[in-house]
């Protein structure tokens, strides 16, 4: 028995915000779903908002209040999407965290692709939904900052003539293409407070990911010790002249900044210093589904010993961890098909993400920082102050010289670390798009990203034919068995009734090893909302159900929670002050979901039900 599960913990109210364009019209409506976060759910929720409704007509979506039901037949829905185009027309939305600390430091803005859906109901009761695609760590921070972050739109979106960029195929929207964004909808969305976080890690995990960037010593030695600016709280300070993690492949940057999960009592925002209103546990989470993190390589060099060699079909978790932490820097190091010394010295280029990324932390705690390997993707780039006794983050290496070299290495930003003896480079990408672009462009490179059709789709900067995915520990993340690693693409043209589901044979057979928990790198996708008196998201519940319908019938970007047979054990995140619950025991706070989840050990759901019945406790505090 599976269900959409809920929790309770966090958030804050909104305050004034800077708008990028003046509100020329008084016609506005409150935005019932103002989300920011994970790319894995962005397309599915967009489809659900625009068209996937139980009403059965192509014009009626799920962007309507759950209690009130859909609008009357004939009240059509509309969609607009915006991105940064090659011609320099940047229509992306901005997540603006307006907090200012005691030294007048501010949190940098973050841009992301956006969809906006609205209906024909009259103001002030018009139904409006918006979702900005940014990293999960930013999405969670936007919700829990106090004052909360707001969504801003660039002025060019508010002219009344801004055409959409059709980022979701019109076929998936039942033939409905993007429309021009009306001025009144622009006015409603511009400056609205974020009231939903879409995330591939739990709020407790995102909270710790930001803290971890700064601390010099913490839980199990997992912290990184990067500098912060002076003032209240912690906003990332300069390394290499840049006060953020920087991309080695683009102008992209992303800065860590702390926030608080709990409210009431003495709880205050660590940056603004403002007291956070009660309740103590001020948020609720719903589990949407699960998605695997794919290990992907550039296969353009197909010769013996290159990553395009057909004999390279997978890696085990130890080899993968050692590649991501910089221990292994030659392609020969990850092959098991050749005798030692048989392969040429070919550099292995490895790309990693930024430490506040949900994707980074899923890979970090499932593989690199797992209890079996206990290292980090930041090895060789860790400030000397965080080298515990010459052993940075206590990696499982016995060489004192090896550890001393890691501690002595200069911090690079952007990360750019060369392996010894002709080894490859280790560099940082910022965001999923940056990662996939870099993989597509560089021979013999290895990296990772959450699966979704959109993340690996063909574009001006991505050629999927250059790439293949690998099994991990012999297990395929997408299909029952491995068949060469080609990344599935939606057919061209997309046609009903199969849409993009037909690329898996048979239809409905995708993600079997996420469902049974044997693929080791996956995360439970979460929708996080706030409890009263914080701003509510009345349109969230129907959108969640509609998205789960969309990924089953149209575009399999993730596996719905109802199809999962397993769960990850929740564990205590001591810095968040929240004890773990898996949500399976009916007694006590039955059904509640609390605590950290990344890197949690995987069990059948039935095992937790039986543990509740037999032992009175859930299977918590267990890690892989």
Short note summarizing the structure:
With 624 residues, this protein is an alpha+beta fold. The chain has eleven helices and 23 strands.
Could you characterize the architecture of this molecule?
The chain has 624 residues and is α+β, with helices and mostly antiparallel strands. Among the domains are: 292-496 and 511-522, D-Maltodextrin-Binding Protein, domain 2, CATH 3.40.190.10; 565-624, no CATH class. It is 17% helix and 17% strand. The protein is built from eleven helices and 23 strands. It has helices spanning 42-50, 136-144, 183-189, 203-214, 317-324, 358-368, 400-408, 432-441, 512-515, 540-553, 605-615, and strands spanning 33-37, 77-82, 93-96, 110-119, 128-133, 150-152, 192-193, 196-199, 245-246, 253-254, 283-298, 314-315, 349-352, 387-388, 391-392, 416-418, 425-428, 445-450, 467-472, 522-530, 559-560, 566-568, 602-604. It has a 17-stranded mixed β-sheet that branches. Strand 9 (245-246) and strand 10 (253-254) form a beta hairpin. Helix 1 (42-50) crosses helix 10 (540-553) and helix 2 (136-144) crosses helix 4. The two termini are 24 Å apart.
Mean pLDDT rating: 87
Q: Which runs of at least 5 residues are low in confidence (pLDDT < 50)?
A: 1-25, 385-403
CATH topology of the domain at 292-496 and 511-522: D-Maltodextrin-Binding Protein, domain 2
Tell me the distance between the termini: 24 Å
What portion of residues is helical?
Answer: 10-25%
Class inferred from helices and paired strands: alpha+beta
């Amino acid at each position: 028995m599976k269900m959409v599960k809920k929790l309770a913990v966090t958030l804050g109210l909104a305050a004034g915000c800077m708008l990028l364009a003046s509100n020329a019209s008084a016609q506005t409506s409150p935005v019932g779903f103002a989300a920011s976060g994970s790319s894995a759910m962005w397309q599915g929720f967009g489809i659900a908002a625009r068209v996937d409704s139980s009403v059965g007509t192509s014009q009626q979506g799920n962007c309507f209040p759950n209690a009130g039901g859909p609008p009357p037949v004939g009240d059509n829905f509309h969609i607009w999407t915006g991105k940064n185009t090659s011609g320099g027309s940047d229509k992306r939305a901005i997540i603006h965290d307006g907090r200012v600390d005691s030294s007048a430091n501010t949190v940098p803005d973050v841009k992301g692709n956006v969809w906006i859906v609205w209906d024909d109901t009259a103001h002030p009761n018009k139904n409006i939904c918006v979702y900005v695609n940014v990293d999960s760590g930013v999405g969670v921070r936007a919700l829990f900052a106090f004052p909360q972050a707001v969504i801003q739109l660039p002025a060019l979106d508010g002219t009344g003539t801004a055409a959409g960029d059709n980022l979701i195929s019109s076929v998936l929207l039942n033939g409905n293409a993007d429309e021009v964004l009306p001025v009144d909808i622009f006015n409603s969305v511009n400056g609205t407070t974020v009231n939903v976080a879409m995330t591939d890690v739990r709020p407790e995990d995102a909270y710790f990911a930001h803290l971890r960037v700064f601390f010099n010593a913490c839980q199990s030695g997992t912290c990184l010790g990067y500098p912060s600016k002076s003032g209240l709280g912690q906003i990332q300070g300069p390394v290499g002249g840049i006060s953020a993690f920087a991309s080695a492949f683009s102008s992209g940057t992303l800065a860590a900044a702390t926030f608080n999960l709990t409210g009431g009592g003495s709880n205050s925002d660590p940056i603004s210093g403002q007291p956070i209103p009660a309740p103590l546990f001020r948020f609720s989470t719903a589990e949407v589904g699960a998605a695997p993190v794919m290990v992907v390589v550039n296969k353009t060099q197909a010769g013996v010993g290159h990553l395009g060699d057909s004999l390279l079909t997978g890696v085990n978790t130890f080899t993968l961890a050692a590649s991501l932490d910089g221990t292994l820097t030659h392609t020969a190091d990850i092959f098991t098909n050749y005798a030692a010394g048989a392969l040429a010295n070919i550099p292995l280029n490895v790309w990693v993400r930024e430490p506040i990324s949900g994707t980074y932390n899923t890979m970090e705690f499932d593989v690199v920082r797992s209890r079996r390997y206990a290292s980090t993707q930041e090895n060789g780039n860790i400030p000397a102050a965080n080298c515990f006794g010459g052993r940075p983050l206590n990696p499982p290496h016995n060489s004192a010289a090896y550890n001393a070299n890691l501690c002595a290495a200069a911090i690079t930003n952007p990360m750019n670390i060369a392996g010894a003896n002709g080894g490859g480079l280790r560099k940082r990408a910022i965001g999923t798009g940056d990662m996939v672009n870099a993989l597509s462009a560089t021979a013999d490179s290895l990296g990772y990203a959450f699966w979704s059709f959109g993340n690996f789709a063909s574009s001006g900067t991505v050629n999927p034919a250059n790439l293949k995915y690998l099994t991990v520990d012999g297990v395929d993340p997408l299909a029952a068995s491995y068949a060469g690693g080609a990344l599935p693409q939606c057919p061209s043209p997309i046609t009903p009734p199969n849409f993009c589901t037909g690329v898996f044979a048979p239809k409905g057979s995708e993600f079997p090893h996420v469902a049974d928990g044997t693929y080791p790198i996956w995360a439970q996708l979460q929708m996080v909302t706030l409890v009263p008196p914080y701003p509510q998201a009345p349109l969230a519940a129907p959108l969640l159900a509609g998205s789960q319908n969309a990924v089953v019938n149209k575009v399999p970007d993730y596996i719905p929670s109802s199809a999962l047979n397993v769960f990850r054990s929740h564990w205590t995140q001591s810095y968040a002050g929240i004890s773990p619950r898996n949500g399976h025991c009916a007694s006590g706070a039955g059904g509640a979901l609390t605590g950290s989840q990344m890197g949690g050990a995987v069990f059948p759901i039935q095992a937790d039900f039986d543990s509740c019945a037999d032992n009175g406790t859930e299977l918590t505090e267990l890690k892989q």
